[in-house]
Specification:
The chain has about 375 residues and is mainly beta. The protein is about 5% helix and about 40% strand. Strands 1-23-22-21 form a four-stranded antiparallel β-sheet, with no helix packed on it. The protein has a four-stranded antiparallel β-sheet with strand order 5-6-7-8. Strands 9-10-11-12 form a four-stranded antiparallel β-sheet, with no helix packed on it. A hairpin with a 5-residue loop joins strand 14 and strand 15.
Length: about 375
């Protein structure tokens, strides 16, 4: 084929692909449950039930038919206020046999001076009315008097497709303690990795370094409210920037992700953060960033084919600021290929995003009358 015709053929093929991608997959957001007060974290129980946390300090079972149960008994003291409260929840990979779950929350100091993010383990009773055998596995240090930036997403680590007995927990930098994110003598602005029994894995990157807290996996983060495993087992996270500069990262052990030295955002006043730079040797670049901010919360990879091939493998991220869902498609090299906003007429802040056992996407909306939604394909 002559070169001009070949170029025209390639252009036509590219335009056809772009048009096919832009063609929306018809879906509707179906309400599974209503009347949840600022729901934050979602997990899937057997027999179609759901486990939902509410930020004011309650955990509830939602029945398959949408009936919302009473608050579970057995939770610890929780510092509920501002952005703090009862936050994420995750079932153990062996839940069917051990009924174990994990949750994170704002833990008040014993003397009432400050709070921090804590990770606890418990068992759900057979009648699904209470938590038993409660044990706090990790408490962020130091405690600090603030109601901001707790982070708090939990991911069970997998190696070779099997659980390795450890958990990742994302931790906010507590806002006005931003500089702490760059030092290793505290847990502010960090991702930590701990054993399911609360012990420190010996292969953590700073486990043997003097002056560093051994639980730290990566540092230089701001306020991480999204974390999930990719189909290949890698940890993906996202974090809030200030005004602009929300980031998606693939946190590697021992790496520095830059906050507050480098960022693509500015202060809420419009002034620059620090020296106003976006790169520095020894600090990692985000895989993707948003300017302006979308205020991301919750994230999940879609591995099922329930919405057709076009969406399979995409990353879905909730937006609190714009009250919508973002679909992102990445290439094999990690480069963002396309981004598509969804549910733009929803009008509700999306707090969590999960793929259910049925292969469908489920969302929690952050409101005093929050909802659990199921994204249903219209086919």
């Amino acid at each position: 084929m002559p070169l001009p015709l070949l170029r025209l053929a390639c252009l036509a093929a590219c335009l056809a692909l772009s048009a096919a991608w832009a063609q929306p997959v018809p879906v509707r957001a179906e309400a599974v449950a209503r009347g949840l007060q600022h729901p934050w974290g979602l997990a899937f129980l057997p027999e179609g039930r759901f486990l939902v946390t509410e930020r004011p300090g309650r955990m509830r079972v939602v029945e398959a038919d949408g009936r919302v149960g009473p608050p579970l008994e057995g939770l610890p003291a929780i510092a509920a206020g501002g952005q703090g409260g009862l936050l994420d929840v995750a079932l153990d990979s062996g839940f069917a046999g051990n009924r174990t779950l994990y949750f994170c929350y704002a833990e008040p100091a014993a003397d009432g001076r400050g709070n921090s993010t804590a990770l606890a383990r418990a068992r759900l009773s057979e009648d699904r009315t209470r938590l038993t055998d409660l044990r706090v596995l990790f408490s962020q240090r130091p405690k600090y008097a603030s109601s901001l930036h707790f982070g708090c997403r939990i991911v069970e680590r997998m190696v070779g497709g099997q659980p390795d007995g450890t958990l990742f927990l994302t931790l906010g930098e507590r806002s006005s303690r931003a500089a702490d994110a760059q030092t290793l003598d505290n847990h502010h602005g960090k991702i930590v990795r701990v054993g399911k029994d609360g012990t420190v894995p010996r292969d953590n990157p700073f486990a043997a370094r003097a002056g560093a807290l051994p639980e730290i996996w990566s540092y230089g983060h701001r306020n991480l409210q999204g974390a999930t495993l990719a189909p290949d087992g890698r940890l993906w996270t996202h974090e809030h920037g200030p005004r602009g500069g929300d980031e998606i990262n693939l946190p590697q052990p021992g790496r520095n992700y830059g906050w507050p030295v480098i960022t693509y955002g500015v202060n809420y006043s419009g002034t620059r953060v620090g020296d106003g730079i976006t790169e520095q040797p020894g600090m990692e670049q985000p895989l993707h960033y948003w300017v302006p901010s979308i205020a991301p919360s919750g994230m999940a990879f879609l591995t099922s084919g329930r919405y057709g091939a076009a969406w399979q493998g995409s990353l879905f991220v909730g937006s609190l600021k714009f009250s919508r869902l973002h679909r992102l498609e990445f290439g094999p090299d990690g480069r963002l290929l396309r981004e598509q906003p969804l549910l733009e007429d929803l009008g509700e802040r999306i707090r969590d995003v999960r793929q259910g056992p049925d292969g469908l996407l489920y969302l929690l909306t952050d409101a005093s009358d929050g909802r659990l939604l199921r994204l249903v394909p219209e086919v």
